[in-house]
Amino acid sequence: MSDQGKQVAKVVALVAGGAVIGAGLGLLFAPQSGAETRRDISRYTKKTQLQATRWSRAIQSGVTEAMERGRAAYSRHREAKLAVEAA
Questions:
Q1: Dihedral class, residue 3 (left if φ above 0, else alpha if ψ from -120 to 50, else beta)
Q2: Which residues contact 32 (CB under 8 A, 6 or more apart)?
Q3: Where are the alpha helices (DSSP H) in 1-87?
Q4: What is the DSSP letter of 32?
């Protein structure tokens, strides 16, 4: 992994850690009942799961597209090389 990739991974980990800590503190100081808090957590979890699924599909689509473009470029390069060798 490149240095830039490592830096991005560190930032993502720090943001995720901060989100978890913030959520925990929010639960401790929440001005509502436990049932309301559990309901809110359940809703938030479902929304987050849906968003993660959407992001996953978008990333998968992008990777698939990049792979297809790479294969097409390789095929064009290979065909051009074979044509030059045959000439």
A1: alpha
A2: 40
A3: 3-28, 34-86
A4: S
> Could you report the per-residue pLDDT of 15-53, keeping only the tens digit for each?
999 999 998 888 788 788 878 888 988 999 999 999 999
pTM more than 0.85: no
- CB < 8 Å & 24+ apart, contacts of 25-30: none
What's the Cα-to-Cα distance from 46 to each of 6, 8, 31, 53, rounded to whole Å? Answer: 30, 26, 22, 11
d(Cα 55, Cα 58) in Å, to the nearest integer? 5
CB atoms within 10 A of CB 27: 13
pLDDT tens-digit series, residues 69-83:
999 999 999 999 888
